[in-house]
């Protein structure tokens, strides 16, 4: 097996594509999936994760239910306006029923158990709010060395989507995001929406996926509400597979070009809450003005071969 991977997720249409990408890739050892509140509530995200794995015939992959709310403050709202009332454009029930029950110990317990049992460092791909991962890093410092890297889908260098300044995953739990991205104990890659938007797929890409096999047809059937939102957001007939872009980097390190820069998260209340502050100044200038709280260095994804990435995603999702 290749990359040992755990996905922490809040399905979500793009999360479903990301889970399928990992579950169908033969060079990935998908150790487990943990769930978190976010696009919809925790019961729905957990059920959706189980059903996507069942669609992929991966009943061997354990699923554990994680945080139902942020670490500190109440979650303002969910993203039903993007993903539909059930998180999957109202079509979750069309997927197969779960092949195995939810693990009884919860997300942090499963994350800890999988890390403890692994004979080599594990990549964690959090593609929802970072509440579970912040809790893990705080509760189990003895396991930091078992984490190869954390590949986060989240943040924005320019404008946000949940607010003018903040991307949804980071905005949903800014305190958790600051704990993960600002902690410095484990290497982190941040895949921001600036890049994921550039990786958007068009109607032709989706039609090719739908025609490829029953798996592709089932995934494409989950997209109507998501497509309707992104027609407005993009201005053309396509959609953004945010989380699948991050999981692609988790599977194939280097498919995204990254730059190591200081990153911190705005946790105060106000219009910038949840913003990712990414210091893209030249290193020489940063050194002149450095302050102790300037932010931990994170590998921020800034570019990729767009057509190559879309081809990679399509090939992996049509393997079976």
From TrEMBL:
GO terms for molecular function: purine nucleosidase activity. Residues 5-308 form the Inosine/uridine-preferring nucleoside hydrolase domain. InterPro entries: Inosine/uridine_hydrolase_dom, IUNH, Ribo_hydro-like. SUPFAM superfamilies: Nucleoside hydrolase. Keywords: Glycosidase, Hydrolase. It comes from the Bacteria. One of its GO terms (cellular component) is cytosol. One of its GO terms (biological process) is purine nucleoside catabolic process. This is Inosine-uridine nucleoside N-ribohydrolase. It comes from Saccharomonospora glauca K62.
